[in-house]
Amino acid sequence: MTAKAFTALLLLSAAVAAAPTGGALQPRALLAQQNGAVLYGVEMIVFRSASTGAAAEDWNAAPAGRGFGTPSSRGGAAPQVARVLPASDYILGGVESRLRSSGTWRPIAHAAWIQTAANWGTQIGIPLSDIGINVPELTGMVYLERAPIYLHLGFDLKLNAGATYAIKEMRSVRYNDRQYFDHPAFGIIAVVTPVKATAGASTR
Fold this sequence. Notes:
Blueprint (H helix, E strand, L loop, with lengths): L2 H15 L15 E2 L2 E2 L1 E10 L31 E4 L8 H10 L2 E11 L2 E2 L6 E2 L10 E9 L4 E11 L1 E11 L5 E4 L3 E9 L1 E3 L2 E3 L1
Parallel strand pairs: 6-8
Antiparallel strand pairs: 1-2, 3-5, 3-12, 4-5, 7-8, 8-9, 9-10, 11-12, 13-14
């Protein structure tokens, strides 16, 4: 990675970490439900390095799969996408604009949707095509799992850009906290938001 790209990566990480946080999880009684399952809003931006392929490091080394662990046998319903949201509902539009103007990073996918969550540890994901992402060089799954206290958000994505680069990581998250999943070749910025129940409709 060049010095310029590394500096930009540090600045981006700091900007995401400094974003306002959402605090403690909302009481579930206030959240919208679908067939008895709580609904969550998820938004993600995937971006790649403008200099992918020019690095001396082995960027396509397989990731360790941080946070996934051994799949649980507790079972439960598979996560379902309730609705894919239009661009007018995006809350990370400013982040995408800053990435585009950086000259170092190039956004390649941006999506937001409402879904149910799987039980913690079951590792049942949602394909990118189910949330409206159909980018030929990008494949993989998005994971949202519910534990007794925390939500867990994870990605298992591969970017084919001359070589194949991968991000595979699961971590605990709080509502409205922007999360940065990094790799020298590409990255993901994502946020999970509560879906409040209003007049019988499910809205963010």
